[in-house]
Amino acid sequence: xxxxxxxxxxxxxxxxxxxxxxxxxxxxxxxxxxxxxxxxxxxxxxxxxxxxxxxxxxxxxxxxxxxxxxxxxxxxxxxxxxxxxxxxxxxxxxxxxxxxxxxxxxxxxxxxxxxxxxxxxxxxxxxxxxxxxxxxxxxxxxxxxxxxxxxxxxxxxxxxxxxxxxxxxxxxxxxxxxxxxxxxxxxxxxxxxxxxxxxxxxxxxxxxxxxxxxxxxxxxxxxxxxxxxxxxxxxxxxxxxxxxxxxxxxxxxxxxxxxxxxxxxxxxxxxxxxxxxxxxxxxxxxxxxxxxxxxxxxxxxxxxxxxxxxxxxxxxxxxxxxxxxxxxxxxxxxxx
Length: 336
Ligand SMILES: NC(=O)c1ccc[n+]([C@@H]2O[C@H](COP(=O)([O-])OP(=O)(O)OC[C@H]3O[C@@H](n4cnc5c(N)ncnc54)[C@H](O)[C@@H]3O)[C@@H](O)[C@H]2O)c1
Ligand SMILES: O=C(O)C[C@H](O)C(=O)O
Known about the structure:
single chain, alpha/beta, Rossmann fold, L-2-Hydroxyisocaproate Dehydrogenase, Chain A, domain 2, 6-stranded parallel sheet, 11 helices, 19% strand, binds nicotinamide-adenine-dinucleotide, binds (2S)-2-hydroxybutanedioic acid, EC 1.1.1.37
């Protein structure tokens, strides 16, 4: 029997990722078998029917851990008492839409949601932003929640991390369970840097295994010309092949992110985008992806990793893009 109760708020709950998330959360995969959940589904008016339909199906699933489901288009009531906020609903880039328009449209979503979190969320609230541009949307929400510690606002790069594991597993013919310490640095965008310099497979350095398999030069080329772009552009590949953006894998990564945050990482480190504390020269406060561990319910950036010139250049390029996005939203007055 559950011995605690948590309120989980999902924005964009009537959308694709929302639908892939809800049933896994209600079954206990987000917070474990000892925590009953109260779900709050936030949608815009046009999305309410879809969210209401999902709520009917949740009822029909008779999940023992599911205590209640509320559907609303009011951010204040959706985030009232929230322990976990999954910020999925966002404004995707449409045809002919300029980057500035995209950031402004998302500002209009994430600024009021940040304010609602500030006003009513539980003291221990944990937020993960999935809706793109995820890192910058997290900064906007955080800027409007001055009473919530900024480290509670994170953005999803676990999908990129998992994609990197999938690619390595295939290349090395090694189960994912044998892989450790892959890192995603920077933005959840094509500039991200998937880094395997410290990764191991079955305890052996991945780079060494690739060199044995391919030879030193070909291994370097594979990492630079195949692995990195494949992971960084996987979102676009999925859109091209599936005809719409990733859904189940994005929901799965969101569950992984929150579940590790709450329960701790046990298989080496993972990756998450969080406000920088200045580590690795990333400007303080910028929401950037790092290699992280979760200890005692808090993300900690893995310290002391050596970065070669190639890594430094790639991280700097992605951080430069994040700084540009931050300046653009600052100019729009979205950072408070
Ligand atoms: N970070 C990642 O790894 C990652 C991966 C995949 C997709 N995404 C992003 O996730 C987002 C959602 O994807 P999807 O496939 O579920 O899209 P979707 O269009 O199916 O669903 C989005 C839902 O959000 C709702 N919504 C819009 N504005 C809202 C608001 N202000 N409040 C509440 N709900 C609102 C819409 O009505 C819609 O139902 C997109 O921005 C997508 O680019 C991120
Ligand atoms: O929705 C997108 O643009 C792609 C998404 O962020 C992904 O990584 O799959």
